[in-house]
């Protein structure tokens, strides 16, 4: 059925596939490790609001300067939301970089993970 040459070629392809699968698994583990450590901080232009988000885009820290009391609550709410979106945009950019460095931005895994984060955060399908 197989001659020695075709058997050797088939075994070589199997070995290459196995190495490739192992490498992809290692890259995915590195991505998961690094992504879990990502956070991003943004500050409003006037410095009254500072928001830090964690790896899933969740608020980890919200700092309001005491001067915030001098403005209407609606303005404060708008500033918080705008600063949150800015921090989440920074997070997406960091995640894009980590993805490119590990599994590759053009890989199926990379595209799927980046799209998933953007959708969860409502930042759209294009890089922020």
TrEMBL record:
* SUPFAM superfamilies the UniProt entry points to: YbaB-like
Domain of life, source organism: Bacteria
Protein name, UniProt field: YbaB/EbfC family nucleoid-associated protein
What organism is the protein native to? Paractinoplanes rhizophilus
Lineage of origin? Bacteria, Bacillati, Actinomycetota, Actinomycetes, Micromonosporales
